[in-house]
């Protein structure tokens, strides 16, 4: 099923929310005095992709850094109108899968193949 504009907006919001969550956790951990609003969305939402503070990046663990990178890529693809398309086979990733994992860049088939390969 093709991703509608409305679903895309919803998923984009979730990507931004997840990004804020990760960054605010890190800010908390590093006791940075960055002032956050109650929702924390506005401050972080204004920060464009790939312009994170170096200190923030260094304090992320690998998992968080991977998710952030995937989120940034997803946001870039939304901007380019390529969101929801598998970067491997250019098939649609599918709304259901994106709802589970909005930052997904592979369709389920490619993802399965890649995981098989990395486990072998
Ligand atoms: Zn694919």
Name a few traits of the molecule.
mainly alpha, Four Helix Bundle (Hemerythrin (Met), subunit A), 120 residues, binds zinc ion
How does this model look, in words?
With 120 residues, this protein is mostly helical. The protein has a single domain, classed as DksA, coiled-coil domain (Four Helix Bundle (Hemerythrin (Met), subunit A), Up-down Bundle). The protein has six helices and no strands. Helix 1 packs antiparallel against helix 4. The longest helix has 25 residues.
Short structural summary:
The protein has 120 residues and is mainly alpha-helical. The protein has one domain (5-119): Four Helix Bundle (Hemerythrin (Met), subunit A) (Up-down Bundle).
Q: Give the helix/strand class.
A: mainly alpha
| Proportion of beta-strand residues | under 5%
Quick one: how many beta strands? 0
- What's the story with the biggest beta sheet? none
Instruction: Tell me the radius of gyration.
Output: 15 Å
Number of helices: 6
Set out the fold topology.
Blueprint: H1 5-29, H2 41-46, H3 54-59, H4 62-80, H5 95-100, H6 108-119
Helix pairs in contact: 1-4
